[in-house]
Amino acid sequence: MDHTVTLANGVTVPALGLGTWYLGDDPRTRQQELEGLRAGVEEGMTLIDTAEMYGGGRSEALVGEAIAGMDREKLFLVSKVLPNNAGGKKMEKALHDSMQRMGVDYLDLYLYHWRGGYPLEETVDCLNELQAKGRIRAWGVSNFDIDDMEELWETPGGQNCIVNQVLYNVSSRGTEYSLLPWMREHGVALMAYCPLAQGGGLARGLMQNKVLQGIADAHGITVPQLILAWDIRDGNTIAIPRSSRAEHTLSNAAADKVVLTEEDLRRIDAVFPAPTHKVYLDIQ
Ligand SMILES: NC(=O)c1ccc[n+]([C@@H]2O[C@H](COP(=O)([O-])OP(=O)(O)OC[C@H]3O[C@@H](n4cnc5c(N)ncnc54)[C@H](OP(=O)(O)O)[C@@H]3O)[C@@H](O)[C@H]2O)c1
Hints:
It is a single chain. The protein is α/β, with parallel strands linked by helices. Helices cover about 35% and strands about 15% of the residues. The strands form two sheets. A seven-stranded parallel β-sheet has the order 3-4-5-6-7-8-9. Helix 1 runs parallel beside helix 9 and helix 7 (about 210-220) crosses helix 8 (about 225-230). The longest helix has 13 residues, at about 30-40. The protein binds NADP nicotinamide-adenine-dinucleotide phosphate (NAP). The site of NADP nicotinamide-adenine-dinucleotide phosphate has 26 residues, from helix 9.
């Protein structure tokens, strides 16, 4: 991939990875989902994002089946621990179960899915312990707003966090006001979830927007490709679009080749402006 992001631990990952929410849920589409994931990896989307939450483990199992036989070291596997499992002995067991479903013996990145009842310090201790044991190579958080990040930075060991996964796309830019600048300053990469606004489902008319369509036409690409190219434009953002079909995944991978001009960005800003004040996190 031309677009990559180098994380604070020195590991370089493709800026376009594969999301998996809802994948693995329906046996009737399982085969096409497997083909989609494998096609994505072949095209260089070697970063796969999943979570114990997705389908109660079914998405992790699907990922396990998709990557069986692949060179593990060429993949960058991400999963997430549920808040209820983010403390005590529960996290180690949750991680073990996730890895078993995926058929692997380490994760490249383990994310704290969203903040729950465990004290942050306890969760951070567990994550650092799993990293020290080599079960995970790195850890991060998800759905953390700037106040959560500041609290994390004051928590002993909290500065080992290298990624914050939050909702981000052209129609959800609120994080640009203060969270993303903070993250860049502190070496925390953005993993953008819902990078296609759930295929446009989160922003009515997005995929039909005339300005986006005009820019896409000028580049000879589709609106989803334009949106993904926009998501990853800054070198600090990884986008993880999800698709249940190979044709969409291949098209998403090709967004890596799109080079947007300053003029394109200005035209997009005019219809989807950057925030001018603090906006609370969008969450799905
Ligand atoms: N940390 C969190 O709390 C959190 C929350 C939400 C999501 N996530 C992660 O982020 C990933 C992405 O977010 P998401 O799945 O919610 O939404 P998304 O990736 O923004 O959108 C997925 C939708 O877009 C469609 N799509 C994909 N490629 C397309 C293309 N080229 N043309 C037209 N439609 C296309 C898919 O339909 P088809 O299947 O028909 O292609 C699907 O309906 C998730 O899968 C998950 O891994 C994390």
